[in-house]
Amino acid sequence: MFLSLRTEVEEALEGALAELEYPTDDLGIEEPPEDVESVLASSVAFRLASEAGAPPPRVAGQVADAIDVDELTYVSEIRTQGPYLNFLPSDAYFAETLAAGTEETYGSLADRDTSLVVEHTSANPTGPVHVGRARNPIIGDAVANLLDFAGYDVSRHYYVNDAGRQMAVFTWAYETFDEADLESDPERDRIEYDLVRYYRKGNRFLENASEAEVEAAEAEIDSIMQGLEAGDEETYERVSEVVDQVLSGMKTCLGRLPAEFDEFVKETRFMRDGSTDDVVSRLEDLDDAVYEEEAWQLDLESFGIEKNLVFLRSDGTSLYPTRDLAHHEWKFDNYDQAVTVLGEDHKLQARQINATLELLGNDTDQLEQVLYSYVNLPEGKMSTRRGTGVDVDDLLDEAIDRAREEVETRLDDRIRDDDLDEDDIERIAHQVGIGAVRYDIVSKQPTKAITFEWERALDFEAQSAPYVQYVHARCCGILEEAGFDVEAGEFPEADVDADLLETPAERALLETIARLPAVVDEAADDLEPHQIATYTREFADRFNAFYRECPVLADDVDPDRREARLALVATSKHTVANALSILGVAAPRSM
What we know:
With about 600 residues, the protein is α/β, with parallel strands linked by helices.
């Protein structure tokens, strides 16, 4: 309803300003501070004061008088406060919010008839997913969820680097060494943990072997790269044997988050179909192409980029950026828009790709990037563990363990009378633990570096995932106590008297619920899922105030008011569940 009210306010202001013969290009619409009773405000009087030759408060009064509130549906009153016009919501606004919110899809926007591909994670298939990169699948998955909820037709892609030197080294090592040559056991019983040992062995060999041994190894590695470049089927199958096995284990890890993909797009695809060769040929024809330091490069100084883009080696092999250009042109051919989630260390490369795509004649308005900083870990058993680093699996295991301990310590304080068995506790530990990780990471602005802290992430009382998840569990508890089978999708009817929801706590909760579609719309436009996390914290505060002040099932509650409040609880349940689903955080039925 917030979007409908905003549209109504915009149209009313435009009509009033036109009637007063004032320009209508800037309406000054904004959300007022929390202590102001209105839902929307306008500061347009500031802008018009000099033109009107009157102080802003007087102009605000003129504009308010020019609007016939009786003709508005969602605005009950316009109050001026100094230079501001404040628009107060009507009973219809609250009633329609309650009715809309009882739909399980509440908050989702209409189909935009726009196809969009979100590429994220794309970690090289050389071994387990490292925790430093955990922000990519979490942010990427949330961005994809957000855009899907906002009405886009979203495809989730993982771009597989299966053609670079790393994969040639990996393939050579896998074919060269035996299990007996490896120096350690796998850290986990999963394929990528097994095979990464070959990759590490190969790199140690290249660093420490004799000059003749390294020369022979490098010759084989070069032949693999040349074979891929030439589209040799046997070479492709050799590399794919390693890539596909490692990728299968990485998929299992990412599925725990969960982060799932519609397609794994291999970069060799664009070598095998000739599109990389086509890009190279077109790049060489550009006036900006230069041959320097035994490589073809693109001078991008005209775009303010000092570092050249190297696109072809002297031996005729392409580089990752070259193949990525072909990949992007394929996206442009198949989708209306493209979004790529990248670590901050790829910022220069992203600028180079954008500039080069423009030089190749592409409309780069189709492409947007979300850049993120990395996740650091505080001192603790994970950050100090001996080995090559901390993997996402380690982070998730510890999250589940800590959540389980927290849930078990709270068993005696639960007010619900549903007994939790071991399976229930394990389910809740997974939902809360993994939810805490995802929420803590996605709730921060991506460009800010963060340090993950367990005490904050798993704090049931603070504004964390468990704090918000508990609101959903509380809604389910109230509805189940009232006799509704929530698990089976049974909820109160929306046909209630919303006018009975008249207390400040009820109205504040309804106002917050009404804003979800608008928050989704703005967050999708900005590609900022952390706006949804901010919304969930505000929503949880509002619901908890309602829960404290407005009994739902108490014996002395009037039956009609009880039904209205149950509808409000159902609306709250859908609202928080849908907001959490955008973030990829589970909404537990009980905690």
